[in-house]
UniProtKB/TrEMBL annotation:
SUPFAM superfamilies: P-loop containing nucleoside triphosphate hydrolases
Species of the source: Arthrobacter gyeryongensis
Gene: aroK
Name recorded for this polypeptide: Shikimate kinase
Co-factor note (free text): Binds 1 Mg(2+) ion per subunit.
Primary location class: cytoplasm
Binding positions for ATP per the UniProt entry: A17, V18, G19, K20, S21, V22, R124
Recorded family membership: Belongs to the shikimate kinase family.
Length: 172
């Protein structure tokens, strides 16, 4: 990745429940650019993520996700919009390629910090059951991918949403 490429999409990646959507929304507002949450786009067109997983399976979800991400990133590359991805979106090889042309922000967190949010969450099928153990397993597997794709890594273990969004902006 060629650093914080001017005019390219700013894409937020990282594991579930680190705040990609709220931080992305705040960052876009600061920058005065549009914000797209790809999970929200999927829900708008296909119903809840839990229902897609239950009815059609994870594989179908990943196909929908890859298409949605590709459209969102293509559009965001034109106006330097901010895009937040679902935690598993980076596993798709086509998506990885697209992200090579974007400014990729990895929101780095740890299990302790997200535990409380995850414990309350019901909309994340991959975290059903023993949620924290699942989160840690998924994070361990995906962490090298986040790290490899990241142009900028921002620690989100402390601070308000507003503070974190400013922290991101300073690094662009
Ligand atoms: C997933 C993360 C979710 C959502 C889906 C699968 C994952 O997005 O895309 O439940 O595989 O990590 P968030 O990271 O916004 O929770």
């Amino acid at each position: 990745n060629s650093g914080a490429g001017y005019g390219r999409a700013i894409v937020l990646v990282g594991p579930m429940a680190v705040g990609k959507s709220v931080i992305g929304q705040q960052l876009a507002q600061q920058l005065g650019v549009p914000f797209v949450d790809t999970d929200a786009v999927i829900v708008e067109h296909h119903g809840t993520i839990a229902d897609i997983f239950a009815g059609r399976g994870e594989h179908a979800f990943r196909e929908i996700e890859a298409r949605t991400v590709a459209r969102a990133v293509d559009a965001a590359n034109i106006n330097r919009a901010v895009v937040s991805l679902g935690g598993g979106a980076v596993l798709d090889s086509g998506t990885q390629q697209l992200l090579g042309d974007c400014t990729v922000i990895y929101l780095e967190c740890d299990a302790e910090t997200v535990a409380e949010r995850i414990a309350r969450n019901t909309g994340r099928p991959l975290l059903a059951g023993d949620a924290m153990a699942r989160w840690e397993t998924l994070f361990a597997a995906r962490r090298p991918v986040y790290e490899r794709l990241a142009d900028i890594t921002v620690d989100v273990r402390s601070g308000t949403v507003a503070e974190i969004a400013l922290r991101v902006e300073e690094r662009l």
